[in-house]
Every structure is written in structure tokens, then in C-alpha cells.
Amino acid sequence: MRVQDMNWEMVEAWLRHENRCVLPLGCTEQHATLSLATDSLLAERVALEAAAPLGVPVFPVLPYGITPSFMAYPGTLSLRTSTYLAVLEDLLSSLHTHGFRRILVVNGHGGNVPGQGWLGEWLARHSDTRVQWHNWWNAPRTWAAVQSTDELASHASWMENFPWTRLEGVSAPAGRKPAVDLGRLRQLPPAGVRTLLEDGNFAGLHARPDEDMARIWTEAVAETRTLLEEGWAP
């Protein structure tokens, strides 16, 4: 259930008998021909669809993340790592204050993974709480579905091209882009990243048939729901 469709009394009533919630994390950054909000749209949607049958509250997606390398692409907004970790500290601590003790973080942006490493520090100070950090797109079952469809898949490629990340009137290029040299890419400043990547796709086709994407999405939702139901340590 979307928290935006609840009031505080409804949350309080939920917490009388349950302590699970979902916090989606996204980003606002270039995604070639796709929406700048692609990571946020996908993280929030997979969280909502996974939680819906269980009635678990899903908080609004955090739409900003760590993405300094794409700052040469207009519309990209990046937080410093220190800022991002401070925001995560405040959000998780707020959830803890209210009584949430099983928190599923559904992350949609690879650049946010410093938060995954930092999470151990927070858990060391909140030993009564369980937090799962779920990178939905490369979790085992979902990534297997991606790879069985097309092994050449990466940022801003077909694997993020769903009906809800496409833009009206914007067509996806037909070519299959060779994989970028990631070792070289990681050494470059933002202007160099844009020169190397051009449109922003890292590798592969820009789009695949909707039936391929529906199969992958079904797996992603099911895998996320399994974590909500069964993924909690004692």
C-alpha cells in the first residue's frame, strides 16, 4: 500500500500488528532515450507491485542518488556520498522511531551502493531491526531472466526500457551498441564520460519486445515479494 494513500492513524494501526515496510531508492540521471527518472520509476513500481498483495506500506521513492559521472548530461542531479548516507541515516532512523523493524530497501540505482556498505554501521546501532538491501535489477532470479533474454544488457539499454520508462514521441535507436570499456569509463570526468558514451547507453539494444520485458518484470516482482515474505533473519 502506498504511504501517500494513508494517514498517520492508518500507519499507527498497521504498526499495532505488523512491522514491515518498503523504502524504494531511485535516482535522477540520464538514461539515453528513456526518462531521467527511470531508476525511480522502476524501484517504486517493483516495490508497489511486490507489496500490494501483502498490504505492506511502501514509502515514496527517494528520487535522488549518487551519480557524479553523468553530470555532463543536463537534467542529472547528484548527491555527494556523505549527503546520501546522511539522508539514509535520517530515513531509516525515522522508520525505527515509529516502530518499523523489518525494512526492505528496494534500490534502483547502481551508484547508490555505498549505502549498502554503510548499512552495517546503522544495523550495529539498531540491533533490534532487520534491513534488507535489494538491488532489484541484478538480484539472482531477475538477473538470470535478463541474461537468458540477452547477455548484452546494461545501463540505459533495453533492460530498462519498459512501457513506463519510455517517453512519448521518442524512438529507440535500432542498433546494437558494443559494450563500453568500463575500466576506461571509470577513469573519466563527466565530460569524458559523455564523449565516450554519447547517448548514454552502456551496451546492447535500446529496446526489446514487450513480451520479453513482461517476463523479466514478473520475475522481478516475484523475487521482491519473496524477500518481503521470507527474507528476514531471525
From TrEMBL:
Pfam families reported in the protein's UniProt record: Creatininase (PF02633)
Protein's UniProt name: Creatininase family protein
Keyword tags: Hydrolase, Metal-binding, Zinc
UniProt entry tagged with the keyword Zinc: yes
Cofactor requirement: Zn(2+)
InterPro entries (alphabetical): Creatininase-like_sf (IPR024087), Creatininase/forma_Hydrolase (IPR003785)
Gene3D superfamilies hit by this protein: Creatininase
Family: Belongs to the creatininase superfamily.
